[in-house]
């Protein structure tokens, strides 16, 4: 008997019983039609609330009454966090956060007396009458995620009634899978979970649930109850006209695939996320003439009533600061902020109809501005800015360290309310920018010359960068003698340009496309309009687009920053002095100063082996990949030699350590770092970053492709310049200090460890050296998935067969010969140190 014949027989055997079961089920369900609850009796026993779905509550049972007119219509499920216990609060899971979005449709099955719920991903489009559309429908079909038995029928209203308890009380995960979707895992304990309340409105339903589980941790089991808000929102029949992304402007986007009969290949485009701003019908002609008009529906943000009153006006101002930018797109009063009044009887911070700036009482120091988006078109339906209470701690740290030397108000342990309020306004504006669809523009600050940031007039008009969407914090470049008064970032030229590009309204697609292309061409050569995509801080390729930096020259900006940091360190005790208080605030400020020093080091370092990644198009005659100019790379090495590889004693060996070490907060209380250990670890992280494989490979590749056209910085020069600094006193036969011996050990260690890693698997992660003193950051928009680079450029394939091993092994051979000649020079500790290095190197070269 052949395989296929056996398979056929098995299939028949399997199918026959199944058919019998299905037939029996159909009979049972057919007969169940007789036992349907009478609609009038159902209403009589319970309560009825009218809305998009009428909600019928009978004791503990909740029913949706779904009109036939809405069957097959697309709804968006938006699940939010409403309440969390302490354990989750500390982990950064707080009220207002969206944890799931998905599209669903309801389909009535009269044969089986059921309502099926399907879900789909609407990222594929094809013309209605094209032949390929049938294939698209077959290859991108929807999936069933839930089924409800029809409990009753309202013949007068042409609607069906279904019991929905199971999808909201934790029994089923189809509509709300909070524990998996938040990364907690575990199953819902249904006997400890229940539906709290269901509200219905003209366009959406809001269901509040309390869902419980037990989380098993090392310390034992932890009971967790999360209250969630599940919004089921009716999407418009006609999606908003999408606008396609352009790499010259930073908008969040949704990927979309387009098929049609005329293609030779599928077209892939990204739809930007933006609000549907349109002129009122009666104002269209005025709008097209260039008059400012109010939109049909303005973007409205509500201030969470739980927000402390003294900060509300500052948060509102951060929203209203964007009004002027929308005038570039032809709209006035396009964005407003208000507090809910008594007349807003339906107002609910969990209701997806309201965009709310939610205030979270939490130890977390952050803010974020995510949006709920119609994936069919990119239309932003609602946004929730999450404002964590302890964000003010980060603001205080930034301003104190970065502007304390030039601003007396920024030196106190507690700022005056107006000073903190202006900082809150800045962050509010930044987060609102995200809710409008704008991504970070980390390249914006590179447009300004460093010395212009020392100009009182310039900073008054321009702030610290052309875009508030950069992480261009406070003006650490300005010196006390400059008398700068405007130190906070502002909404700038780029922001107005981006809003015009994203929100200007057009009557047809051809007109839109032509206008937007010309708008980009018009500004393509102006550095103030430059968009620099955010990169992983672990892998900066283009040094123009870094976080927390200022100006077009990292070396010069950091030199000014070092001058100010010295002023901060000299005043650590004075600025934090409180009679009878301990040195906690002093230690925190001290750590902040060290973190800022390391930040400058990283800004400078990333110019070495850096490549300017330009967004080019055919015909613009621009170079897509430009190595950082030779002089800048050379100056960057000089900076590191001066400020890192010669450990700054003003920072690590000052009078403050008589009273406190630098410290950070931790769950176990203040964590203190001894200065020597901290200096050693932070210097080591710079060495490892400087000589990492990707950086050296970029330098080598630049030598290969660009040496004919311009002078490029070489790997040979890098090793020679660093070696000459690190072993300068050894060359002169002098004894070494503890810090100097430490620096030589760090230099040799990076070469030894890197060679060891090259000889093992490429993904070896046994040793990870990184800076643990990152200045606090805001936003959760760093990168969408993990620490991957913003541009997918491969510089590190087959490292073991590259020049990397030869370079590092060659450097070790050079050092070995040199140290053998010098091993009897210097004092006893220095000679012991040389013998140690010789043995370490020998064990690697000749194991």
From TrEMBL:
GO terms for molecular function: metallopeptidase activity. The keyword Signal applies. Residues 96-280 form the DUF5117 domain. Residues 413-732 form the EcxA zinc-binding domain. SUPFAM superfamilies: Metalloproteases ('zincins'), catalytic domain (SSF55486). This is Uncharacterized protein DUF5118. Residues 37-84 form the DUF5118 domain. It comes from the Bacteria.
């Amino acid at each position: 008997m052949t395989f296929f014949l056996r398979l056929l027989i098995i299939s028949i055997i399997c199918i026959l019983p199944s058919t019998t079961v299905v037939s029996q089920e159909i009979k049972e369900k057919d007969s169940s039609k007789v036992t349907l609850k009478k609609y009038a009796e159902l209403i009589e026993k319970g309560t009825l609330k009218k809305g998009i779905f009428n909600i019928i509550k009978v004791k503990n049972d909740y029913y949706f009454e779904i009109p036939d007119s809405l069957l097959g219509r697309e709804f968006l499920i938006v699940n939010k966090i409403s309440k969390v216990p302490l354990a989750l609060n500390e982990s950064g899971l707080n009220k207002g956060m969206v944890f799931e979005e998905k599209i669903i449709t309801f389909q009535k099955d009269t044969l089986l007396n059921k309502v099926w719920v399907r879900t789909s991903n609407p990222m594929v489009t094809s013309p209605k009458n094209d032949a390929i559309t049938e294939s698209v429908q077959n290859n991108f079909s929807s999936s069933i995620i839930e089924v409800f038995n029809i409990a009753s029928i309202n013949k007068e209203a042409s609607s069906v009634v279904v019991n929905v308890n199971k999808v909201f009380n934790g029994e089923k995960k189809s509509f709300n899978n909070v524990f998996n979707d938040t990364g907690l895992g575990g199953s819902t304990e249904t006997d400890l979970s229940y539906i709290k309340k269901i509200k219905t409105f003209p366009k959406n339903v809001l269901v509040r649930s309390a869902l419980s589980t037990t989380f098993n941790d090392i310390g034992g089991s932890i009971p967790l109850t999360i209250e969630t808000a599940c919004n089921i929102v009716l999407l418009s029949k006609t999606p908003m006209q999408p606008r396609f992304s352009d790499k010259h402007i930073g908008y969040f986007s949704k990927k979309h695939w387009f098929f049609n009969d005329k293609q030779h290949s599928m077209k892939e485009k990204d739809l930007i996320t933006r609000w549907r701003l349109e002129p009122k019908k009666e104002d269209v002609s005025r709008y097209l003439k260039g008059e400012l008009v109010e939109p049909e529906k303005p973007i409205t943000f509500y201030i969470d009533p739980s927000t402390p009153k003294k900060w509300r006006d500052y948060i509102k101002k951060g929203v209203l600061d964007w009004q002027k930018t929308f005038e570039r797109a032809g709209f006035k009063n396009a964005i407003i902020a208000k507090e809910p009044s008594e007349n807003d009887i339906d107002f609910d911070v969990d209701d997806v109809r309201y965009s709310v700036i939610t205030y979270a009482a939490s130890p977390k120091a952050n803010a974020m501005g995510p949006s709920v988006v119609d994936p069919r078109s990119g239309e932003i339906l609602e946004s929730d800015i999450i404002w964590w209470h302890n964000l003010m701690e980060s603001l205080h740290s930034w301003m104190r360290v970065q502007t304390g030397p030039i601003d007396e108000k920024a030196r106190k342990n507690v700022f005056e309310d107006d000073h903190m309020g202006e900082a809150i306004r800045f962050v509010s504006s930044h987060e609102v920018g995200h809710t409008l669809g704008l991504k970070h523009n980390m390249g914006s600050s590179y447009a300004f010359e460093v010395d212009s940031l020392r100009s009182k007039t310039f900073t008054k008009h321009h702030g610290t960068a052309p875009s508030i969407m950069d992480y261009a914090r406070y003006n650490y470049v300005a010196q006390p003698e400059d008398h700068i008064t405007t130190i906070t970032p502002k909404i700038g030229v780029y922001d107005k340009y981006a809003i015009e590009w994203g929100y200007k309204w057009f009557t047809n697609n051809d007109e839109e496309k032509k206008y937007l292309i010309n708008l980009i061409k018009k500004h393509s050569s102006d550095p103030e309009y430059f968009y620099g995509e955010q990169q992983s801080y672990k892998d900066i390729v283009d040094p123009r687009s870094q976080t927390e930096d200022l100006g077009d020259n990292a070396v010069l900006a950091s030199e000014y920053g070092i001058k100010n940091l010295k002023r901060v360190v000299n005043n650590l005790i004075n600025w934090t002095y409180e009679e009878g208080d301990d040195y906690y605030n002093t230690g925190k400020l001290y750590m902040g100063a060290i973190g800022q020093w390391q930040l400058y080091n990283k800004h400078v370092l990333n110019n070495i082996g850096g490549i300017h990644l330009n967004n080019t198009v055919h015909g613009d005659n621009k170079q897509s990949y430009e190595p950082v100019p030779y002089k800048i790379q050379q100056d960057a090495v000089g900076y590191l030699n001066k400020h890192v590889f010669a450990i700054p004693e003003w920072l690590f060996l000052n009078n403050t350590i008589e009273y406190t070490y630098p410290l950070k907060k931790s769950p176990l209380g203040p964590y203190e770092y001894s200065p020597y250990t901290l200096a050693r670890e932070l210097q080591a992280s710079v060495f490892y970053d400087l000589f990492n494989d990707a950086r050296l490979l970029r330098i080598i590749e630049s030598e290969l492709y660009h040496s004919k056209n311009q002078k490029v910085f070489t790997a040979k020069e890098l090793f020679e310049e660093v070696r000459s600094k690190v072993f300068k006193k050894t060359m002169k036969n002098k004894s070494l200090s503890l810090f100097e011996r430490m620096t030589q050990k760090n230099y040799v260690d990076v070469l030894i460890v890197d060679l060891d890693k090259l000889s093992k698997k490429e993904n070896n992660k046994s040793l990870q050296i990184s800076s643990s003193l990152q200045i606090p950051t805001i936003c959760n928009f760093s990168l969408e998935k993990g620490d991957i680079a913003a541009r997918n450029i491969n510089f590190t394939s087959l490292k073991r067969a590259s020049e990397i091993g030869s370079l590092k092994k060659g450097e070790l051979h050079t050092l070995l010969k040199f140290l053998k000649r010098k091993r009897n020079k210097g004092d006893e500790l220095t000679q012991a140190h040389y013998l140690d290095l010789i043995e370490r190197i020998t064990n690697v070269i000749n194991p």
